[in-house]
Design goal:
Elements lengths: L2 H5 L5 H5 L12 H34 L4 E7 L24 E4 L8 E4 L7 H4 L2 H16 L22 H8 L28 E14 L5 E14 L3
Helix pairs in contact: 3-5
Length: 237
Protein backbone atom coordinates (compact mmCIF):
# COMPACT_ATOMS: atom_id res chain seq x y z
CA UNK A 1 0.00 0.00 0.00
CA UNK A 2 1.42 3.37 -1.02
CA UNK A 3 2.05 6.12 1.49
CA UNK A 4 -0.61 8.34 -0.09
CA UNK A 5 -3.36 5.74 0.20
CA UNK A 6 -2.33 4.92 3.81
CA UNK A 7 -2.64 8.56 4.80
CA UNK A 8 -6.29 8.59 3.72
CA UNK A 9 -7.29 6.10 6.49
CA UNK A 10 -8.13 7.52 9.93
CA UNK A 11 -5.50 6.88 12.64
CA UNK A 12 -5.97 3.97 14.98
CA UNK A 13 -7.01 4.43 18.61
CA UNK A 14 -3.49 3.73 19.87
CA UNK A 15 -1.98 6.22 17.45
CA UNK A 16 -4.57 8.88 18.24
CA UNK A 17 -4.12 8.61 22.01
CA UNK A 18 -0.40 7.99 21.92
CA UNK A 19 -0.76 5.28 24.62
CA UNK A 20 0.59 1.76 24.63
CA UNK A 21 -0.40 -1.11 26.90
CA UNK A 22 2.40 -1.77 29.40
CA UNK A 23 2.73 -5.27 30.86
CA UNK A 24 0.78 -5.84 34.11
CA UNK A 25 2.81 -5.42 37.25
CA UNK A 26 1.76 -6.12 40.82
CA UNK A 27 1.45 -3.10 43.07
CA UNK A 28 2.75 -5.11 46.04
CA UNK A 29 6.31 -4.06 46.95
CA UNK A 30 8.90 -6.78 46.79
CA UNK A 31 9.68 -6.36 50.47
CA UNK A 32 6.06 -6.98 51.47
CA UNK A 33 5.79 -9.94 49.10
CA UNK A 34 8.91 -11.42 50.69
CA UNK A 35 7.47 -11.00 54.19
CA UNK A 36 4.18 -12.60 53.13
CA UNK A 37 6.00 -15.58 51.64
CA UNK A 38 8.16 -15.93 54.75
CA UNK A 39 5.14 -15.84 57.06
CA UNK A 40 3.23 -18.38 54.98
CA UNK A 41 6.21 -20.75 54.76
CA UNK A 42 6.82 -20.65 58.51
CA UNK A 43 3.16 -21.12 59.40
CA UNK A 44 2.75 -24.04 57.00
CA UNK A 45 5.86 -25.77 58.32
CA UNK A 46 4.85 -25.31 61.96
CA UNK A 47 1.42 -26.79 61.30
CA UNK A 48 3.11 -29.73 59.58
CA UNK A 49 5.34 -30.31 62.63
CA UNK A 50 2.32 -30.24 64.93
CA UNK A 51 0.35 -32.72 62.83
CA UNK A 52 3.25 -35.06 62.08
CA UNK A 53 5.27 -35.16 65.30
CA UNK A 54 3.60 -33.46 68.28
CA UNK A 55 -0.11 -34.32 68.20
CA UNK A 56 0.38 -38.09 67.70
CA UNK A 57 2.60 -38.24 70.82
CA UNK A 58 0.31 -36.09 72.97
CA UNK A 59 -2.83 -37.98 71.96
CA UNK A 60 -1.07 -41.31 72.51
CA UNK A 61 -0.13 -40.21 76.03
CA UNK A 62 -3.72 -39.11 76.66
CA UNK A 63 -5.03 -42.51 75.56
CA UNK A 64 -3.00 -44.03 78.42
CA UNK A 65 -4.34 -41.49 80.91
CA UNK A 66 -1.15 -39.39 81.01
CA UNK A 67 -1.89 -35.67 81.18
CA UNK A 68 1.67 -34.30 81.02
CA UNK A 69 3.97 -34.77 78.05
CA UNK A 70 7.45 -33.44 77.35
CA UNK A 71 8.83 -33.60 73.81
CA UNK A 72 12.41 -32.87 72.75
CA UNK A 73 12.68 -32.11 69.04
CA UNK A 74 16.27 -32.42 67.80
CA UNK A 75 17.15 -30.24 64.78
CA UNK A 76 18.26 -32.02 61.64
CA UNK A 77 21.79 -30.58 61.61
CA UNK A 78 22.79 -32.27 64.89
CA UNK A 79 25.31 -35.01 64.04
CA UNK A 80 23.49 -38.07 65.33
CA UNK A 81 24.24 -41.69 64.49
CA UNK A 82 21.98 -43.22 61.90
CA UNK A 83 19.30 -45.57 63.14
CA UNK A 84 20.39 -49.02 62.06
CA UNK A 85 18.59 -52.30 62.23
CA UNK A 86 19.78 -54.49 65.06
CA UNK A 87 21.60 -57.70 64.31
CA UNK A 88 23.45 -60.37 66.26
CA UNK A 89 26.74 -58.60 65.48
CA UNK A 90 25.56 -55.17 66.68
CA UNK A 91 26.87 -53.56 69.87
CA UNK A 92 23.38 -52.29 70.68
CA UNK A 93 21.45 -53.98 73.45
CA UNK A 94 17.81 -53.83 74.39
CA UNK A 95 18.54 -51.12 77.00
CA UNK A 96 20.71 -48.93 74.74
CA UNK A 97 19.10 -46.03 72.88
CA UNK A 98 20.61 -44.32 69.82
CA UNK A 99 20.28 -40.93 71.53
CA UNK A 100 19.29 -39.91 75.06
CA UNK A 101 18.68 -36.58 76.76
CA UNK A 102 20.63 -36.20 80.01
CA UNK A 103 19.46 -33.99 82.85
CA UNK A 104 15.76 -34.84 83.03
CA UNK A 105 14.20 -36.76 85.89
CA UNK A 106 12.80 -40.21 85.21
CA UNK A 107 9.26 -38.85 85.65
CA UNK A 108 9.83 -36.14 83.05
CA UNK A 109 11.85 -38.11 80.52
CA UNK A 110 11.10 -36.44 77.18
CA UNK A 111 9.88 -38.14 74.06
CA UNK A 112 12.63 -37.65 71.47
CA UNK A 113 11.78 -36.59 67.92
CA UNK A 114 14.61 -36.50 65.39
CA UNK A 115 13.74 -33.88 62.80
CA UNK A 116 14.81 -34.15 59.18
CA UNK A 117 15.20 -31.83 56.21
CA UNK A 118 16.62 -28.39 55.46
CA UNK A 119 13.67 -26.62 57.10
CA UNK A 120 14.40 -28.23 60.47
CA UNK A 121 17.92 -26.98 60.98
CA UNK A 122 18.87 -25.10 64.15
CA UNK A 123 19.01 -21.90 62.12
CA UNK A 124 15.25 -22.11 61.56
CA UNK A 125 14.23 -22.95 65.14
CA UNK A 126 16.59 -20.39 66.66
CA UNK A 127 14.19 -17.57 65.74
CA UNK A 128 12.15 -16.62 68.83
CA UNK A 129 9.11 -15.67 66.74
CA UNK A 130 8.95 -19.23 65.36
CA UNK A 131 9.01 -20.76 68.85
CA UNK A 132 6.24 -18.39 69.95
CA UNK A 133 4.18 -19.26 66.87
CA UNK A 134 4.66 -22.98 67.58
CA UNK A 135 3.44 -22.51 71.15
CA UNK A 136 0.42 -20.45 70.10
CA UNK A 137 -0.63 -22.76 67.26
CA UNK A 138 -0.24 -25.89 69.39
CA UNK A 139 -2.24 -24.36 72.25
CA UNK A 140 -5.10 -23.53 69.90
CA UNK A 141 -5.09 -27.01 68.37
CA UNK A 142 -5.02 -28.81 71.72
CA UNK A 143 -7.73 -26.71 73.32
CA UNK A 144 -9.94 -27.51 70.33
CA UNK A 145 -9.16 -31.24 70.54
CA UNK A 146 -11.97 -33.53 71.69
CA UNK A 147 -9.42 -36.04 72.99
CA UNK A 148 -8.04 -33.70 75.66
CA UNK A 149 -11.27 -31.89 76.49
CA UNK A 150 -12.55 -32.43 80.02
CA UNK A 151 -15.74 -34.52 80.24
CA UNK A 152 -18.97 -32.63 80.72
CA UNK A 153 -19.90 -32.19 84.36
CA UNK A 154 -22.75 -30.35 86.11
CA UNK A 155 -22.07 -26.74 87.04
CA UNK A 156 -22.20 -26.02 90.75
CA UNK A 157 -23.94 -23.03 92.25
CA UNK A 158 -20.56 -21.35 92.72
CA UNK A 159 -19.83 -21.49 88.97
CA UNK A 160 -23.08 -20.10 87.58
CA UNK A 161 -21.95 -17.03 85.64
CA UNK A 162 -25.40 -15.39 85.68
CA UNK A 163 -26.36 -16.19 89.27
CA UNK A 164 -28.45 -13.38 90.77
CA UNK A 165 -27.71 -12.48 94.38
CA UNK A 166 -30.40 -12.54 97.08
CA UNK A 167 -30.03 -8.81 97.69
CA UNK A 168 -30.72 -8.05 94.03
CA UNK A 169 -33.97 -10.01 94.24
CA UNK A 170 -35.06 -8.29 97.46
CA UNK A 171 -34.24 -4.84 96.08
CA UNK A 172 -36.91 -5.35 93.44
CA UNK A 173 -39.53 -5.89 96.16
CA UNK A 174 -38.10 -3.41 98.68
CA UNK A 175 -36.59 -0.43 96.81
CA UNK A 176 -35.31 1.01 100.10
CA UNK A 177 -32.54 -1.57 100.08
CA UNK A 178 -31.07 0.01 96.97
CA UNK A 179 -28.79 -1.72 94.49
CA UNK A 180 -26.17 -4.19 95.61
CA UNK A 181 -22.83 -2.58 96.46
CA UNK A 182 -19.53 -4.12 95.50
CA UNK A 183 -16.73 -4.78 97.93
CA UNK A 184 -14.69 -1.61 98.65
CA UNK A 185 -11.47 -3.41 97.85
CA UNK A 186 -12.84 -4.68 94.55
CA UNK A 187 -12.02 -8.28 95.51
CA UNK A 188 -14.57 -11.01 94.80
CA UNK A 189 -16.81 -12.16 97.60
CA UNK A 190 -15.76 -15.13 99.70
CA UNK A 191 -17.28 -18.36 98.41
CA UNK A 192 -17.87 -17.07 94.88
CA UNK A 193 -15.58 -18.87 92.46
CA UNK A 194 -14.42 -16.85 89.47
CA UNK A 195 -14.62 -18.62 86.13
CA UNK A 196 -11.28 -19.39 84.54
CA UNK A 197 -11.54 -18.50 80.86
CA UNK A 198 -8.09 -19.83 80.03
CA UNK A 199 -7.65 -22.91 77.86
CA UNK A 200 -7.82 -26.36 79.35
CA UNK A 201 -4.39 -27.39 78.06
CA UNK A 202 -1.20 -25.57 79.00
CA UNK A 203 1.55 -25.44 76.39
CA UNK A 204 5.12 -24.22 76.77
CA UNK A 205 7.71 -24.21 74.00
CA UNK A 206 11.27 -22.93 74.10
CA UNK A 207 14.70 -23.44 72.59
CA UNK A 208 16.96 -25.01 75.20
CA UNK A 209 20.51 -26.33 75.22
CA UNK A 210 20.43 -30.02 76.09
CA UNK A 211 23.10 -32.57 76.82
CA UNK A 212 22.72 -35.47 74.40
CA UNK A 213 24.30 -38.87 74.80
CA UNK A 214 24.81 -41.04 71.75
CA UNK A 215 26.49 -44.35 70.96
CA UNK A 216 29.23 -44.35 68.34
CA UNK A 217 30.06 -47.11 65.90
CA UNK A 218 32.34 -48.78 68.46
CA UNK A 219 29.60 -49.00 71.07
CA UNK A 220 31.06 -46.19 73.21
CA UNK A 221 29.10 -43.28 74.64
CA UNK A 222 29.58 -39.76 73.29
CA UNK A 223 28.07 -36.60 74.77
CA UNK A 224 27.37 -33.25 73.16
CA UNK A 225 25.51 -30.04 74.02
CA UNK A 226 23.10 -28.80 71.35
CA UNK A 227 20.12 -26.47 71.13
CA UNK A 228 16.82 -28.36 70.87
CA UNK A 229 13.14 -27.46 70.91
CA UNK A 230 11.41 -28.45 74.15
CA UNK A 231 7.61 -28.67 74.14
CA UNK A 232 5.69 -29.28 77.37
CA UNK A 233 1.98 -30.08 77.39
CA UNK A 234 -0.14 -30.28 80.53
CA UNK A 235 -3.83 -31.18 80.23
CA UNK A 236 -4.43 -30.22 83.90
CA UNK A 237 -6.75 -33.11 84.63
Amino acid sequence: MSQGIKDTFPPSYTESTGQTHAPFRSNTPRGQALLDQLTLTRSTHIQSMIDTHILPIVESQASFGIAQTTIAMLPSDIPLPAIEEKSEFSFDTASTKPVEVIGFSSEEEPKIVRLEGQMNRTEFWRVQAIIEELERALRERLNASAVLRNPTRPISEFEEPTRTSRRSLLSRVMPSLGPEKKSPSGNPEVGVKQMDNAGLVLVKARLEELCLRTVNEFGLFDTMARQCVIVRVDARC
